[in-house]
Amino acid sequence: MTTQPFRLVIIGGVAAGASAAARARRLSESARITLIERGPDVSFANCGLPYHIGGEITDRAALAVQTPQTLQAMLNLDVRTGTEAVAIDRAAKRVRLRKLAIGAEEWLSYDKLVLAPGASPLRPPLPGIDDVRIHTLRSLQDMDRLKSAAAAAQRVAVIGAGFIGLEMVEQFVHLQKEVALVELLDQLLPPLDKPMTLLMEDELKRRGVQLFLGDAIAGFATAGGALSCRLKSGRSLGADLVVLAVGVRPETALAKDAGLELGPRGHIRTDAFLRTNDLDIYTAGDAIQVRDLVTGEPAAVPLGGPANRQGRAIADHIFRPAEAKPLPGALGTAIVRAFDVAAGLTGWSEKRLRAAGRPYRTVTVNDNHHASYYPGAKPILLKLLWDPTDDRILGAQATGLAGVDKRLDVIATAIAGGLTIDNLSQLELSYAPPFGSAKDIVNLAGFTACNTRDGLVSPIETLPDDPAVQIVDVRPPSLAQKHPVPHPGVINIPLTALRQSVAELDPQRPAVTVCALGKTSYFAACILALHGFSVQSLTGGLRATVDPRTPAKLPTP
Amino acid sequence: MTTQPFRLVIIGGVAAGASAAARARRLSESARITLIERGPDVSFANCGLPYHIGGEITDRAALAVQTPQTLQAMLNLDVRTGTEAVAIDRAAKRVRLRKLAIGAEEWLSYDKLVLAPGASPLRPPLPGIDDVRIHTLRSLQDMDRLKSAAAAAQRVAVIGAGFIGLEMVEQFVHLQKEVALVELLDQLLPPLDKPMTLLMEDELKRRGVQLFLGDAIAGFATAGGALSCRLKSGRSLGADLVVLAVGVRPETALAKDAGLELGPRGHIRTDAFLRTNDLDIYTAGDAIQVRDLVTGEPAAVPLGGPANRQGRAIADHIFRPAEAKPLPGALGTAIVRAFDVAAGLTGWSEKRLRAAGRPYRTVTVNDNHHASYYPGAKPILLKLLWDPTDDRILGAQATGLAGVDKRLDVIATAIAGGLTIDNLSQLELSYAPPFGSAKDIVNLAGFTACNTRDGLVSPIETLPDDPAVQIVDVRPPSLAQKHPVPHPGVINIPLTALRQSVAELDPQRPAVTVCALGKTSYFAACILALHGFSVQSLTGGLRATVDPRTPAKLPTP
């Protein structure tokens, strides 16, 4: 008696699809595994595309992590590139495939089907959008076109200041282009809270990038062959080349036509094992809707890391259903580097928490990425958000010149473990002068959060305009004179003189203490509070008024 | 009515003591805080001392984080340097102080007392130990002496290959000395498992350091004014300068004389709030015994990070006892860099687990510290240990050329959160090509651990000598010929040919698969296992036989 081999069909051959195929083969030598890919490439490094355009990754072949041939040789897969899945017959458990080059169609039967169609870059229906000089970036072919177009271009406009937009800006500056960046919001990196994007904003300006924040693309015009971007503000921006990086749309036509359920924002619905409402059809990657780890609500996280792990998890559930564990919720951890600055987040931002009406508290702390006395210490800024009802961490954002990824990863792990701000303050992180500080900035964020919760310090995020409030600049007079606080009526009393000079302040009037980084002002606020003042400390300090590239000499142990 | 101010006396003015004093002042403006320090300096950066000797930190003043004057000015402390606490009168709640310069003594009363005496470097009573050319390193004065002696020395012997020993070796090589390193164990970095120290060993050899592992110092001899180290093996080692870095002894004479309880290894006993058996006396830093986070058993962790947090926690418990939280147990997270290599650990090592008779399992994984296709990817090796009874992580060790601190910190946080190997595999860490991989090595360690637990792969740590076992080298023939597996009777069948060549192997005989990094051999072992073989995969691969500085081109997605 021969048994029919188990038939696994996977639609989409990049991150999620290729991971599902590879893991499936390691769990079954006998399964017939077919990998369907519309494009010519499988399992390519899509996160690396900007770096080949800019020349940081010189070898194009490095991005083609696998080819159909290597997948066949190593994993015994039936790889069909240039092939589109055009319909799913769920009743008969088969997919209709079209060989794009010749148009031939056929049905392929499955026992289990995996949909990993990904997402396509948005191309809003704007006037002039079809100009060939307007690019998006998803495939190796897009990359080749962009790289070739960039060679002849001098002025480049990038539309959208998200992660990919910033990566492209960086690479075009490397190529010595004149670069303009247009963003609808009045900040870079829309997922982050604005104060956490200012260091990156400074960095782009320093590198000569022309920023159009709080403005939107309205259309494209051609005059005498020259392309220009028309902005909502009325401004016009000449460009030889435009890159649209304004988000992605999940590719769900196939799923929708097959009657699979979509979520409120059009992503394919999944359970904790990544099954659709048809239990023989799984889905993974940029097209799907997952569960938010913090709230349990629907979330979409179109990122490479989750896609890879999802693909693998699907194979586990297909071949080892009894042992498979449900996937945890998503945090949306993400990071980007542009020039010397990195910025990223994990979990919820303040703007999301506020919009959702969830209770939260937040602190922002400044420090150096390793011991200040050891050469090469670079500034880093960390914002922490937590739930005041149970002290658990809800999210964090970090930006700086080094060590940003480490702090995000530690806090992502802390959220996964359900840790509180007290736990964060006590984390035992690796310390030697080249790597960290005896009290790492993660500990410091925990300390500051606990101080805030306990009422030992009352943070304020901007200086109040109320003339009744005494603004006390507690920096040394030399610094206070060189970089004055941009606010009227500021009194300069350095921390070291505060106890002796406390009589100069009016204990009946509220006070706000100010310093460069938010640490000395906290120390000063403690003194004033213990002297009976109603006092707040400017959280995160005046960072914007000092050059963040000067490692801060921190004044106290 | 005037109330007597609260009197806090702190013995020891460096990490733990200075942190206690600073936090105490922020919680109370009215307390009378006295900081007693035997040496001339307070709050100096003791972890930075080696780097000033080697010239990496050029400015000595950078190490004097605070002076008695700055502490007085900022924190209104009564700082008494050059003053030794010689006795505690617990009944009367007072300490006897001796001003060392003049010998004058006085009693000082306390409401609460903090002991932060630290630990002193061991100087074993060996023949010739009193030679002035034999140094230890604890204070700024030790540093000055060593730096000055180094200027005139050509041959330097460092005794002890722990964290400080390796830092000193690195700095002496920077100074272009001829450096010899003697270590009792047959490995560097005694807290780590030996395989995790080999990369560092290679690095030291590459830098010309002469290693004497598995040998011990027996004494010192002088002939014609020349100093030599006599080793247990009989070897003799000429040296112009010797640094002893063979461990520290807690300074507990004062505590012991006062009847405070000591633990089995002579450290001062504490409760979870760092109180001694006298509830008015707290203690922190290198002299104390804490609780191990994993086992709850007594532990000593003489490191800067815990000392700083402990000092702070004591002030919290003194001034805010109702709100103070008990300290979590200790993990002993530690890291060291020497030249291009970093190595460190968190939690329990395999040797400790084995010695304690605790159940554990372990895997070792190789990867690059960020996406392999992005320039600058550096190899990193990660060993994970977990408890098979509940899948919780017990410890980890990492070594590599970049990103070691990040992985240790993520796993330290995971242990603090009680995470399992399944949780580790699903951590959502920040990913962009310059920072990590879509499946970070931490995820990979989780995947591999789960595979091991689930019986999907059976790891083996060394190649068996049993001729009945088929050793299958699954690397490409070119690599297999260039760097042959150092073992008789090895069969080379590259992964890509394994399915077609499986008939060349005997399914009745056990097999072990081998590759460079342990990944391809795992893939091969999956194939053979699914073909009915009893097969194991060499965990971590043949790393020692390939140059770890060549970023590994990993063969599969």
From TrEMBL, chains A, B:
Presence of keyword Metal-binding: no
Cofactor(s) this protein requires: FAD
Record GO terms (molecular function): peroxidase activity
Keyword terms: FAD, Flavoprotein, Oxidoreductase, Peroxidase, Redox-active center
Keyword Flavoprotein: yes
Domain annotation Rhodanese: ranges: 465-551
Family: Belongs to the class-III pyridine nucleotide-disulfide oxidoreductase family.
Protein name according to UniProt: NADH peroxidase
